[in-house]
Design a protein that fits this description.
Length: about 270
């Protein structure tokens, strides 16, 4: 499946700021062309690529500004990537509570509702449970909200759905992690976040929002939660994000997403 993905944004830097981007598709994703342009007040900036866990490619400008920062990324993705390798440290890391996935606080709830389940049945049940109880409402959550806040408010966006799925799975002793993706068919179009769980020797993707077919998604970054996968990070000074546009298009007809079938990200 050939997919064309892109993202662009503009931000105002009031002071000198170090910027880290996580917008490029993961290193193992096969692609035939790719371009990343970063400018400050129209002047092209040199960026350095840093390889993160699971093939995530971070791009850093170092300290730049003040001025108007513009970022434009595009890539054409072909074929499928090899399944991600299984690492013992990953199975430990992604079973632990994290900043936005407070599995220790959801232990009693998870064990009461899902005690009798494991494997694919557990993954399906948790994803369905979250999808039925949380309303997708753009702008309804704060960047600092985690799984517990989402459970209490019963509303959120994709990262909130994913955080709650991950926290409940971890509370049931199933390693789970968050993946940022480009998602053809997503409405409203944006960067998307899904959960990935270790089930029967494979990392399988779960999307409780059901807003896009999982088999057409393209991996960007993988981590414990949104703190590890943010598309933009600034240090040294705050910046003001003024515009953001994301596109993800698959050639031909999008596949139907049968939620009962296991899917690995490409």
């Amino acid at each position: 499946m050939r997919r064309r993905v892109s993202s662009s944004f503009e931000a105002e830097l009031g002071e000198a700021t170090a910027v880290v981007l996580s917008v490029a598709v993961a290193d193992e994703v096969p692609r035939v062309d790719e371009e990343l342009l970063v400018t400050l007040d129209g002047r092209l900036l040199e960026v350095r690529e840093v390889l993160e866990d699971h093939g995530a490619r971070l791009h850093t400008t170092g300290r730049v500004g003040p001025g108007r920062l513009e970022v434009a990324y595009r890539a054409t993705v072909t074929g499928v990537a090899e399944p991600p390798p299984i690492s013992e440290i990953d199975l430990i890391r992604y079973a632990r509570p994290s900043r936005y996935c407070e599995s220790d606080r959801l232990f009693s709830l998870a064990r009461a509702d899902f005690r009798a389940l494991d494997g694919q049945d557990l993954l399906d049940a948790v994803s369905s449970w979250v999808g039925q109880r949380v309303a997708y409402i753009p702008g309804s959550s704060r960047p600092i909200d985690g799984a517990v806040a989402t459970l209490l408010s019963r509303e959120g966006v994709c990262r909130d759905f994913a955080h709650l799925v991950i926290a409940l799975l971890r509370a049931c002793d199933t390693p789970a992690r968050l993946v940022s993706v480009y998602a053809p068919g997503l409405q409203p179009m944006d960067f998307h976040a899904v959960a990935e769980a270790y089930v029967e020797g494979r990392w399988l993707v779960a999307d409780a929002t059901s807003l896009a077919p999982r088999s057409s998604m393209v991996r960007i970054a993988t981590g414990r939660d949104a703190a590890d996968t943010a598309f933009l990070t600034s240090t040294g000074a705050q910046l003001r994000l003024d515009a953001l546009e994301v596109t993800a298009v698959a050639e031909g007809e999008l596949p139907r997403d049968d939620v009962t079938l296991p899917v690995q990200l490409t």
